[in-house]
Predict the 3D structure of the following.
Amino acid sequence: MVTNTLSIGSPETFFFDFSEGISNIHIEEPNNYDIQHHFQKALEPYKNKPITLLLSGGLDSQFAFNVFNRYCEDVKCVTFRFMWDDSVVNPGDVVSSKIFADHMGADHTYVDFDLRDFIEDNHVLDFSKQYYFNSPQIATHAKCISSISNDSTFVIGGEVPIFGYFNGQCFPPGYKSKKGVTGMRIEQDKDLYKRRYVPWLNFAKQNNIDLIVDPMFMSREILFLSYYHNMRVLKKYNELPYMINDKKFRYDIYDYKIKYYKAFDWAEYKIPFRKETGFELLRIHYMKQKGDLDEFNKRYRVPLWRHNERTEWYNKRQYQLAPKYNNFESIMETFNNFVNGKDIKNSNSIVADI
C-alpha cells in the first residue's frame, strides 16, 4: 500500500505526491553559510535520542557519522554482514567500516543477515515490490533495518547533491532546461529523487520507523549549502561532473565525491579504494553459473523495473516528468557566472561494466 504523499524535513526539502509523480526539491539561502551551525540546529531534537547509524564504510555514511557524532550523545554504528552460507558477500563494507570506526572510536557492531535466503527464495522481489524499491541491494538494507527491533532513530548516508556541467552551463540532476538542451546525461536522471527517496520513505512510513534518509536534506538551509559546497570543489580543482550522454561508457563520480567530502575540513575519513557493496560479487557469481553477465539483473532487477513501471505513479508518462526545483535561481546564477568563459574539467570516472 502506498501513502499519497511523502516528504523530508519541516518545512519540506523533498516532497512527492503520487498522484502527480513529480519530485519537488526546496532550498533556502541562509544568512549564515556555516553548515555546521545548521546541522547543530537541525539535530537539536535528536541530541539525547538513541541513534543507529548504518555504517557501510563508504564516504556517505562516514560523513553522516561525522555529523551525528558531533551533535548527538548516543550514536551507535551498525554494519550488516551479508552472509552466503559461511561466506561474507560484502567484505569491503566489513573492513572499511571497521577501519573508520576504530579510527573514530565509534561504538560499532556487526549484524549478520542471511542474504542467500533473501535472494534465492525471491523474498527480495516480494519485499521490494511492497515498497517500490528498484534496487535489490537497497531493498536488502531496508530488510536488514526491519530485522532490528529498537526504538532508535535510524540514519543512512545520503548522496552528494551535485551540480553537473554541460555545454557551458551548470545544472542540478534532472533539471529541465528552458533552452531545450539535449544530449545531457542529466536529462536521464529525471527520476533520481523519486528512485532514491520515495521507496525509503514509503518503507519507513508503513513500518513506523523513524528514519533519516539523507543528512543533507534535513533542512532547506543545509540542502542549499550542500549544493553550494560544489563551488568549493569547483574553485579548488576547476572541475565538475560532466552531464554527458555517451552510451559507449559508464561513468561514476567517485573521484569527485572524495574531493567534495574532503572539502569539509572539519570531518575525518578513511577513504576506501573504489568502495564496492558486495552485490558486484553476486553479479559475478550468477554470471559464472549461467554464462550471462546480466543474469543477476534479469532475475532481480528487471522484474522490479517492470513492476514499478506498471504502477500508476511510475508509469512512463510520469517517469519523464522532471523534478521541480524551488528557489534554485540564485544559486544556479552564481555557478553559471563563475564558469562563464572557463574551461571546466570533467571529473567523471569511466567504470567497467561488471
